Amino acid sequence: MNRQNNHELIVSGIHLDLTPSLKTYVREKAERLFRHEERILRIRVELECDSKEAVSSRFKAKGHMVINGPELNATVSSDECHKAISLLTDKLDRMLRRRARLEKEKRNHPHTIEFADVALPKAV
Fold first, then answer.
1. Are the CB atoms for 40 and 66 separated by under 8 Å?
2. Tell me: the pLDDT tens digits for 19-76?
3. Alpha helix ranges (H) inside the chain
4. What's the rounded mean pLDDT across residues 6-22?
5. What is the DSSP pairing of strand 40-49 with strand 59-67?
6. Distances (CA, A) of 6 to 30, 33, 38, 40, 104
7. Interstrand relation of 72-78 and 59-67 (parallel, antiparallel or unpaired)
8. Domains in the chain, CATH or no CATH each
9. What is this structure's pTM?
10. Three-state SS for 22?
């Protein structure tokens, strides 16, 4: 199976220095999302540290996924940066699964269209 790997991952830090370990952790977690859905064009992850917030919500991870169709956005907060990244990828994965389930539901249960003005022959 020869797939073109044209996915783009953008990682940025707000009030936070991005260490190589954080970058590789985000890359590993994002690979799971790219593996589950091949129509993802770009994922942008913003990691933010706010020292003025409470300890339980000091680190925020924001994800913006550009995909064929409506884009997906998610935000989570946690007391650790790695934990916030993990929670973010789990949330985006749930959003992708829900989207796929709804598309499958729509595909398997199409709605009928009523024509009021046109006299069509009835199917027997």
1. yes
2. 999 999 999 999 989 888 888 999 999 999 988 888 888 899 999 999 888 899 999 9
3. 20-36, 81-108
4. 90
5. antiparallel
6. 14, 14, 10, 9, 25
7. antiparallel
8. 8-107 (3.30.160.100)
9. 0.78
10. helix
